[in-house]
Inverse folding.
């Protein structure tokens, strides 16, 4: 959009022509939450700051020699990339200073970090995140992302760690940042889904689309077919059916990139149970739940086999789940074969 090039009489500014930063959008969203206070805005602004820092570190990763893995595994038993640790620390440092954050929990930390307790009348939140999803793509300059979920902190629940274990329906906000050819932020606070792109020239996320609706159908599926032989039979039947019906396969190997494509173009993203990951590979609380909230808010569906992901009662912070996320008709096609 170049509002300087057209002569004034040709300007017909509509609402989406206006320049809206993420910051001003967040403030407007907060006003829609009757019981929220400014702390939610401050939390989202901390995530925004983290995203800018992480984006710039990723861009310079090869130059600064921070590609490749460390000699350590994370709590999931997965080899950590150097940038996993850098992204995690960035989020912890940015969120740590915000008074509205009671607890942070990350894929990279076994235990949640208790920052401060709530005093009465002072609402606080728990922020969960996967700091760098799909980080195995980094060495090959592939897309990666950050996924986050915000829950209300209920100080009446003890022990405090248990207060985190809320179903996805309780999320106050959820989103992801995709570090691809451009840096894209997709956000919901429960009133639809909006999209922002980082303008590196001014260092701000600008709104490019609001009220995104996922196409109801599209002949695309996104899954790691290398695992096909160890999928439960229903998923194997679905693949047979899709391949006999002219479906295309698209798989980036980073959930953020794959779900983003499904959100904009339609289709279905799947990660079923496999022999190696009998409960599924993806984490419920900071991968599946935020993505499920976004896709549902955009009019799609998000299931774990036949159960709605957002209704699963978590028993463990790092619990895994199978995932079927996408266009409502495409999710139904999968379920019909289970
Ligand atoms: P990560 O959070 O450790 O990066 O793992 C999650 C990633 C997802 O982004 C992606 O969908 C999936 O793992 C890819 O797994 P696979 O290599 O088994 O296809
Ligand atoms: Mg991940």
């Amino acid at each position: 959009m170049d509002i300087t090039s057209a002569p004034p009489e040709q300007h017909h500014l509509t609402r989406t022509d206006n320049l809206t930063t993420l910051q001003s959008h967040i403030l407007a969203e907060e006003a829609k939450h009757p019981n929220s206070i400014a702390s939610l805005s401050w939390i989202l602004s901390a995530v925004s700051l983290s995203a800018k820092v992480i984006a710039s570190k990723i861009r310079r990763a090869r130059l600064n020699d921070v590609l490749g893995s460390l000699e350590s595994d994370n709590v999931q038993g997965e080899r950590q990339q150097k940038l996993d640790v850098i992204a995690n620390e960035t989020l912890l440092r940015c969120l740590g200073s915000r008074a509205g954050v009671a607890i942070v929990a990350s894929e990279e930390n076994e235990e949640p970090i208790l920052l401060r307790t709530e005093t009465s009348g002072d609402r606080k939140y728990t922020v969960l995140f996967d700091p760098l999803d799909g980080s195995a793509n980094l060495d090959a300059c592939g897309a990666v992302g950050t996924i986050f979920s915000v829950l209300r902190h209920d100080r009446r629940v003890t022990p405090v760690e248990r207060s985190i274990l809320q179903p996805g329906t309780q999320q106050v906000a959820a989103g992801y940042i995709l570090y691809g050819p451009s840096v894209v932020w997709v956000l919901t606070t429960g009133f639809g889904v909006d999209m922002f792109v980082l303008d590196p020239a001014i260092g701000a996320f600008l709104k490019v689309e609001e009220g995104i609706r996922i196409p109801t159908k599209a002949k695309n599926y996104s899954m790691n077919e290398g695992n096909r032989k160890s999928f439960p039979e229903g998923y194997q039947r679905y693949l047979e059916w899709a391949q006999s019906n002219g479906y295309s396969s698209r798989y980036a190997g980073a959930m953020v990139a794959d779900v983003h494509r499904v959100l904009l173009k339609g289709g279905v993203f799947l990660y079923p149970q496999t022999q190696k990951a009998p409960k599924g590979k993806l984490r419920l609380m900071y991968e599946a739940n935020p993505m499920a909230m976004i896709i549902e808010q955009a009019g799609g569906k998000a299931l774990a086999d036949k159960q709605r992901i957002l209704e699963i009662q978590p028993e463990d912070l790092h619990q895994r789940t199978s995932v079927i996320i996408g266009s409502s008709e495409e999710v139904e096609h999968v379920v019909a074969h289970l």
